[in-house]
Amino acid sequence: MNPLTFALRDSATLFKRDVRHSLRYLPMTLSGIMTPVIMLVLFVYFFGGALGSSLMGAEHGAYINFVAPGILIMTIASGCATTAINVVTDMSEGIIARFRTMPISRASVLTGQVLGSLLQTLISVGVVTLVALLLGFRPTTNPIAWLEAYGVIALFTFGVTWMGVLYGLIGKTPAGANSLVLTFLLLSFTSSAFVSTATMPSWLRWYADYQPFTPVIDTVRGLLMGTPITTTNVILAIAWSVGLALLGFILAQMVYNRSAA
């Protein structure tokens, strides 16, 4: 059996472990779902009237079509927090040290965590989508556009999840790891998730348009609602997703190997 086959086998084994871990600690798993659901209800029913009127002169039924894609991407940030806390908990409890003494691929320890977190976050996105539909979210595109939208979501989730693993490795404590993840939550709040960037001052709009969350949100919103999608947003969405994945992977491997030494 060649090294690649060993790595794939070990990654699959650790992926199964991460899935069981998620089922064992359901409160933490459910928090990654409930946070975006609460945000969805809050912005649709508490703030939707004012925000919807300022955006399009419509009531909350129309505003949910604007805000739901943003909440779906915000779900990824919530999933990142769960990933970071799981990693830092494994590090502090010594299970990672135990894995290092076993004849398994070193890279598979982090890869298995990423795959498990990716699955968990995508399930959370699916649940939030169902809640949004129950609240009045009405996409106007075809099934192919749905698949394309979830392809964009999966790619961005992959990148953010690797950053979550990195945050868990350098956070030292659950509180430290969670505080690092707040950078993603801040980015989601200062994106086009809740209001159009066209309503922002010009100096702030430049930042909002080119930070990681806005291109992804606008691309997903365009795919689901049939609004115009610019080539720039598509390129930026893919570039940010791939860039975050590479940055998280490289730095996480460096930190992991250094801590082993």
List its traits:
mainly alpha, 261 residues, globular
Parts with pLDDT < 50 across at least 5 consecutive residues:
none
Number of helices: 11
Q: Name the beta content range.
A: under 5%
| First and last CA, distance | 27 Å
What is the H/E order? HHHHHHHHHHH
Overall outline: globular
Overview of the molecule:
With 261 residues, this protein is mainly α. The chain has one domain (3-260). Helices cover 84% and strands 0% of the residues. The protein is built from 11 helices and no strands. The chain has helices at residues 3-24, 26-46, 48-56, 60-93, 95-100, 106-135, 143-171, 174-189, 202-210, 213-225, 231-260. Helix 1 (3-24) crosses helix 6 and helix 6 (106-135) packs across helix 7. It is globular. The two termini are 27 Å apart. 45% of the residues are buried.
Short précis:
This protein is mainly alpha-helical and 261 residues long. 84% of the residues lie in helices and 0% in strands.
Topology at a glance:
Layout: H1 3-24, H2 26-46, H3 48-56, H4 60-93, H5 95-100, H6 106-135, H7 143-171, H8 174-189, H9 202-210, H10 213-225, H11 231-260
Helix pairs in contact: 1-6, 2-4, 2-6, 3-4, 4-6, 4-7, 4-8, 4-10, 6-7, 7-8, 7-10, 7-11, 10-11
